[in-house]
Amino acid sequence: MIRKSAFITGVNGQDGAYLARFLLDDGYEVHGMVRRASMQRNDRIADIARHIHLHYGDMTDAGNLLRLIKNVAPQEVYNLAAQSHVQVSFDTPEYTANVDALGTLRLLEAIRILDMQDDCRFYQASSSELFGNSHAAVQNEQTPFAPASPYAAAKLYAYWLVRNYREAYGLHASNGILFNHESPLRGDEFVSQKIACAAAAVKRGEDTMLTLGNLDSRRDWGHAKDYVRGMWLMLQQDKPDDYVLATGRAETVRWFVEKAFECVGINIEWRGTGLDETGFCVASGRPLVAVDPRFYRPVDVGHLCGDASKARKALGWDAAVKLETMIEEMVSAQMSKQ
Prior knowledge:
Elements: E1 5-9, H1 14-25, E2 29-34, E3 52-56, H2 62-72, E4 76-79, H3 86-91, H4 93-113, E5 121-127, H5 150-169, E6 172-178, E7 181-182, H6 191-203, E8 210-212, E9 218-219, E10 222-223, H7 224-235, E11 242-245, E12 251-252, H8 253-262, E13 268-271, E14 278-281, E15 287-291, H9 309-315, H10 323-335
């Protein structure tokens, strides 16, 4: 039996680590690309690294990407590498565009130049941030895009490139429009992990104050394990297409904070409004959560909630892990680090 081969950019990120495990369990030969600068951040794949063929590479280097695709000759390419922090994209818009937008172009061009469009299937990690401040209460594949950050704009360029290469060159290329997906492997700079870290730190008795931006921001949060399965399912279809992956349930950042602290036996009471809103421990009266305007985005996206009806019907996909279960898992993982 011939093993299928897959090439994952950003293999040492949250999604890359879960996807690599999923593919290895399914018998794939897995190749992963990492930047030399991020080699010290391979802890997410430390337990499976010996089973992965790791390659140095960078989304800003077209020649390097062309060489890697030629040498690996994968049957499936999963483009997960990105500058993926929305707030950071306002500070580094050119770099974000170079990696997220032009990086996708470089990969697609490598497949085209090598005449691999009939032998290689391509997955593009798109984002719910494409919808920005959409007026739709729930967003699906037909909802108009309204990107509200350099990150979202770069991802939108990549989204349309994938569709263009699909139509122009017959490439089996699909966009996964993924809503927020978290896990214990999430980076500390993301709000979900930041909250989980703070809850664990307070429980350990540390003098910690959790500072956040807009507490009213509402997001559709799922577990990364479920979402990488959806990525794979997209490339197993006879025809490529674009799919929203989401839970269909949106909760505020404030709610996420409350549930995370409940996991360590702490109830939060809110006092004040706007920038003066503070979360206090009900039992001790100690302030634990504060609002910091530095964490507000220049253009804030208030509400994202996805409709994954198409993926459920066409792919047989669904979000299996409940949001409360995921939060408990994240907080528990932080507690185990003490």
